[in-house]
Design a protein that fits this description.
Shape: globular
Distance between the termini: 13 Å
Mean pLDDT: 73
Strand content: 35-45%
Low-confidence stretches: 1-8, 15-28, 33-38
Helix content: under 10%
Number of helices: 1
Oligomer: single chain
Order of helices and strands: EEHEEEEEE
Largest sheet: 4 strands, antiparallel
Radius of gyration: 15 Å
Number of strands: 8
Structural class: mainly beta
C-alpha cells in the first residue's frame, strides 16, 4: 500500500498489477453467457484504488481523477472520497482536479 499526503488534496493510493475482470466477476458457468460479456484487462495494466480527503480528513466527493496522457481514462470520487481506476502500467501518473483546489499530479512510481 502506498500512502501519500498532499497540501490541498490528501490521497491514499493502493495499486496492484495483474489480470483483473472489468466486468463479469462471476465464475465461468455461474451465470450462463456472462463469459461472453466479460472484458479482461491485459496483465500489465494496474488497478489503482484511493481515497481523496481535504486537510481536515473529510472526503472530497466528485474529484476528477484522470490518467495523464489518456484523457478518456478517468473517474470521479464517490461519497466516501474513494475511487478506482485501471491504468496502463505502474509508471502512470494520476491527475486530480477539483473546483476550488489546485490541480495535483501524482506518479504511481514515486
Amino acid at each position: 500500500m502506498k500512502s501519500f499526503t498532499l497540501p490541498l488534496l490528501c490521497l491514499m493510493l493502493v495499486f496492484s498489477a495483474g489480470a483483473v475482470h472489468a466486468r463479469g466477476d462471476a465464475a465461468p458457468g455461474a451465470n450462463p453467457g456472462a463469459e461472453s460479456l466479460s472484458k479482461f484487462i491485459p496483465e500489465d495494466d494496474v488497478k489503482v484504488q484511493g481515497v481523496v480527503t481535504d486537510d481536515a480528513g473529510e472526503p472530497l466527493i466528485g474529484v476528477n481523477v484522470l490518467e495523464k496522457g489518456n484523457p478518456t481514462n478517468g473517474t470521479i470520487t464517490d461519497v466516501d472520497g474513494a475511487f478506482q481506476l485501471t491504468v496502463a502500467d505502474d509508471n502512470a501518473t494520476l491527475v486530480f482536479t477539483y473546483i476550488g483546489y489546485q490541480k495535483k499530479e501524482m506518479p504511481l512510481n514515486g
